[in-house]
Amino acid sequence: MMNPPPLLVTCGLPYTNGPCHLGHLRTYVPADMYVRYMRRAGEEVVFVCGSDNHGTPIVVSAEEAGTSPRALSEKYHKHFDESFKRMNVIFDRFGMTDDPATHHRTQAIISELQKKGYIYNQVVHQAYCTKCKRFLPDRYVEGICPHCGRPARGDECDQGCGKHLEPGEIKDPVCKVCGTKAEFRDQEHYFFRLSEFKDFLLPYLDQLRGTNNAKNYAIGWIKDELHDWCITRTLEWGVKFPGRDDLVVYVWVDAPIGYIAFTEEWAKANGKDWKRYWCGENRVTHFIGGDIIYHHCIFWPALLKGAGYGVPHAVVASGMVKVDDHKFSKSRGYVVWTNDDYLDKGLPADYLRYYLLAYTSHTKELNFSWKVFGERINNEVVNIFGNFVYRTLYFAQKEFAGIPPGTIDPAIIAEIEKTLATVDQLMRDYEFKGAVDAIMALAAFGNTYIQTNAPWKLIKTDRAAAAQVVKNCVQIAKALAILIEPVMPDTAQRCWRQLGYFDQVAAHPISDATCPVPEACIEPPTTLFVKMEDTQITELDALLQRRVAEANKKTEKIPVVTFEEFQKLDIRTGKVLSAELVPKSNKLLKLMVNIGTETRQIVAGMQQFYQPGEMVGKDVVVVTNLAPAKIFGIESNGMILAAGDAASLLVPVKPVEPGTKIR
RNA sequence: AGCGAGGUAGGGUAGUCAGGAUAUCCCGUCGGGCUCAUAACCCGAAGAUCGAUGGUUCAAAUCCAUCCCUCGCUACCA
């Protein structure tokens, strides 16, 4: 059998318009662990990543900051590069998608796709801001939904009926940046014939390696119809579309192409051939966040296939990160910044790496809380792992001035081998938590072993037997140092040094875990870890709580409306004539309400708070000139006012006739 | 609504793909041991109708069906 192709591991590219946070690390730390492990399991691995610099948000952020997109990108590029290094996430190449390699490779791929007929052009309506003098990507247009009449974004009626809006559909478009009324202009765009790749993608995804969340999600999409994909934008910033100075390619085209370009950059600097990684059979493994599965499992393989490159071998998608059991959200304050909140507080990278890897399976949601962080670090890392190594070496040094001579008990070697086999299988299945657990189980085994064999007792009667127990324990400690390196590289190295070795633990293959430790003198050991103090945890947590509280205040800020705007609303009292549950809905009630001049049918989301029976006969407050909407297929002509999440109804205190105007 | 992921002792979490005998681990509670060690470690106990119902099977947390609950996603948005 031929040697398998080398492994190329990539991480989803961080976008250069904000700093590094836990959400990033949830993908990068496991990828780094995987790379470290696979290298030491004897694989040839290249690990590349880079920053993603293009797209409208960066242009807008740069304008707001009074700088250029390139300068902004460079600032955050440097930030990510440093943050990853501080976390011991070490790439062979960390590039930028705005560097020449990505521009060049993107244009080469687009040209190739054009040559093969996979790209066509088409004129589309697009919102244009006359003040900013540019076309507005859909996210930067606001207007009125043509379906329900409520405010909507350019691409979707996000506050109203939730319908997807095609370019040109939105009414009264306004530039979100400057507030000027936008107009529609015709603009030629280029489309990728994604729809032609359906027959390729289904069998491809079926055999795709990686985590099944990625695979399932993508297969689900494919079963629906695949639309062709608009791959150009009217922007200055980005990779120029070949032959068109006024268009750049969509950022989601050049971002993954960065993976190839960064490999090229690495290969050039190291005298290697990048084609070995990207052309033909390969083992390209993408580590990504769960939010970008679509791009990596559908667009990207189709692009590569169409342009004649090899397609990815595996996609490993991480689950989402929660903070204090809340959805990760920068605007709501549920965020942990890698530098400000963690590393700059003097906390070790190893602790966070451990937490991220050991909390749960890679594809499940990971909750971060300082309290749990402190508990797990102290109980598992410090007490079980750290204490075993320390008590072993302390006793060895005290009683034997180091590691005693002798051979290792075969049962101990067998135990280590069992751990090695388990870890290896789990790592190849991308089950990082399982692998960490197996390593910790070996540490727990060590504690049980030393406890049951009590060399501190034995030594009083049988010094040789005590030496044997110690020797076995040291062997376990050695195995632990070797195994824990992909998880906690700094700790592993410290542990390695304490075992009397002067070289790098990372230079040793995993299989060295069963190589007997020789007799040696060692220095008195120091504790491997410092415990997390309760006061420290409380302080860190308080900082987070303060940020959440401040964010809450900010979100409460609401825009001022003029009296004229207020007067547009026609609010009247009404009497509920009948109420019934809307079938298949668990929130909606269908109400008939007398508003004086007429009886209206109104659908209201208050089923969980009011029985239909108790609604009948109630005087309620109704917005009568709200645009009609269809909810669950039932027409609703107005809105009943209620306060708060529990929908406390607003009712007139003194009796009034139905239809009385509210001012 | 559609799609996806989850629902396992007081909290958290593994096991579910490849069905089997006392359902894992961490914390917490209770009892004991040890004292080499960072008040750490070891042993034991209590505590789970494995979301519900029905089915397949000698055997179901695990497979199938239906339902309930929670969360996420729904593409020209990076």
Judged by helices, strands and strand pairing, the structural class is alpha+beta
User: Which term fits the overall shape?
Assistant: globular
Major β-sheet strand ordering = 3-2-1-15-16-10
**Arithmetic mean of pLDDT:** 86
Q: How much β-strand is present in the residues?
A: 15-25%
Largest sheet: 6 strands, parallel
Helix percentage? 40-55%
Question: In whole angstroms, how far apart are the ends?
Answer: 84 Å
Number of helices: 20
Task: Tell me how many strands there are.
Answer: 30
Low-confidence stretches: none
Radius of gyration: 31 Å
Description:
This protein starts with 6 loop residues before the first strand and ends in a 14-residue tail after the last strand. With 663 residues, it is an alpha+beta fold. The protein is 42% helix and 19% strand. It has a six-stranded parallel β-sheet, with helices on both faces. Strands 24-23-22-25-28 form a five-stranded antiparallel β-sheet. A four-stranded antiparallel β-sheet has the order 5-4-9-11. Strand 23 and strand 24 (599-604) form a beta hairpin. The structure holds one RNA strand of 78 nucleotides.
How are the elements arranged and paired?
Elements: E1 7-11, H1 22-40, E2 45-51, H2 56-65, H3 69-86, E3 93-96, H4 100-115, E4 119-129, E5 134-135, E6 141-144, E7 151-153, E8 171-175, E9 183-192, H5 198-207, E10 209-210, H6 212-223, E11 229-230, E12 232-233, E13 240-241, E14 244-249, H7 251-270, H8 275-278, E15 283-289, H9 293-307, E16 314-318, E17 321-323, E18 326-327, H10 338-342, H11 349-358, E19 366-368, H12 370-400, E20 402-403, H13 410-428, H14 432-453, H15 455-461, H16 463-484, H17 489-498, E21 520-521, H18 534-555, H19 563-567, E22 571-581, E23 589-594, E24 599-604, H20 612-615, E25 619-623, E26 629-631, E27 634-636, E28 639-640, E29 642-643, E30 648-649
Helix pairs in contact: 2-3, 4-7, 4-9, 5-6, 6-9, 11-12, 12-14, 12-16, 13-14, 13-16, 14-16, 15-16, 16-17
The structure holds one RNA strand of 78 nucleotides.
